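Hi Prof. W.,

I finally got the Thioredoxin domain-containing protein prediction working! I wasn't sure whether to trim anything, so I left the full sequence exactly as given:
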Amino acid sequence: MDSIVSSSTVLIRSYLTPPVRSLSPASSVSVKPLSSVQVTSVAANRHLLSFRSGGRRTRNISNSAIRCGGIKEIGESEFSSTVLESDLPVLVEFVATWCGPCKLIYPAMEALSQEYGEKLTIVKIDHDANPKLIADFKVYGLPHFILFKDGKEVPGSRREGAITKAKLKEYIDSLLNSISVA
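And this is what came out:
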């Protein structure tokens, strides 16, 4: 039986009965059997590990910066065409690969991106790869949200820090109502 023990780094224990834990008590640990499963860790090194039964393991490292699924990641070169020239309001989320709160709200942002698909565009901008945008918009904390409508920042739309999906939904709904898009 293959099993994985994970915390801030991924440790692999093969053919151990029972699985061995050698982590500090404060570490978050989950142990489960694997057969033909792919496990993706969104840690800073972006590991993609594939496991096959029989103990054969393959490890590939992906160099992608931030995995966005339904949310498009843009840079300085696309900012004008994607955000400022958009017919829809655009919620810009400034994030970083090393930002814990950014990773925490990732699933909520993905769900909300699908939910607001026709009323709102949500994009991500990587903090480290886009220093000019960070300076231009005075982004000091992450994650940082700014809503744009008709090429301009909506007054009062800035928000900083991780919040729950329900609070994100309230925040987006109130902004859309304030600009009459609801």
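The chain is about 25% helix and 30% strand. Does that look reasonable to you?

Thanks,
D.
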